[in-house]
Amino acid sequence: xxxxxxxxxxxxxxxxxxxxxxxxxxxxxxxxxxxxxxxxxxxxxxxxxxxxxxxxxxxxxxxxxxxxxxxxxxxxxxxxxxxxxxxxxxxxxxxxxxxxxxxxxxxxxxxxxxxxxxxxxxxxxxxxxxxxxxxxxxxxxxxxxxxxxxxxxxxxxxxxxxxxxxxxxxxxxxxxxxxxxxxxxxxxxxxxxxxxxxxxxxxxxxxxxxxxxxxxxxxxxxxxxxxxxxxxxxxxxxxxxxxxxxxxxxxxxxxxxxxxxxxxxxxxxxxxxxxxxxxxxxxxxxxxxxxxxxxxxxxxxxxxxxxxxxxxxxxxxxxxxxxxxxxxxxxxxxxxxxxxxxxxxxxxxxxxxxxxxxxxxxxxxxxxxxxxxxxxxxxxxxxxxxxxxxxxxxxxxxxx
Length: 400
Prior knowledge:
By secondary structure, this protein is mainly β. It is about 10% helix and about 35% strand.
């Protein structure tokens, strides 16, 4: 029996294609949502609106995201997507933080805060409303405008730099405590269950003069056990809530944990070594987290802590990794979802790698491309990625 040249050509082409796209290439991830046509769809049928810039999880399997155009996106554990256009009077959304009861706190940028009714808003029942604080404008001198013990709802607050929610649903935020300047100090504050304010860490900058010096840049590193009240936070500091009353703070060179009134560095070292080349894909090579040279990259998209103390944090560009080993093989997704993953993997300009720091203190690479990341549950990281025209959110299982 003779085989036609056409059939032979097809067989050869399929053989070459199979060799180039082995199932062993890349890392297997599971699709949560995206790559479809339905703006309020489910899973692979859902279309995510625009590029999602922030992700937050309330710890119940529900994910919340926000786009640069001010669309709030809710994605439940089954991949059901619901989107709401936020009615913003001024400014843009800077950060969101989801509480266990389904409330999402919304922080606007500085222009939005100055023009708004409250320093921090809340999104509930499909609309925004004031939550905490009244914008006080620029401080005239060092120190909080409203002292500890006062009600938070109507408290006069300096510029709020970041927000988070702890496991008990209490709002955490950083507040500018010095007049405007590159070296203005910030306080880390919490709204207690009775609605009053308490300062957890930070102070006005004792060396404040409106300019950032090398000594002040070194605030990223300090002896472990330093009292929380002696820390100096700056505007670039990002925060996340950890187990119990622990709060994790991300600086431009480190991540440290505040607990029981003192601070301990958990990621980054002055003069540290490179993050180990991860040639085998996610969660491969590792190093002691406090031995590496860490920079979160810009913008600081990701900082989240699970109930066991595991941290996911964005980092700057990586080198020495095998790009093919980190490419996503999207399970349960459409061809469009896979195309988004492939496009994101091929665009190093928009790559925002994500590090995982184990509760035991080892650092390893979870993803080398994608956008914002957060914990979906204690064993799963959710990461967003943007292609040419579509967006997806995938789930990456953390290895034991």
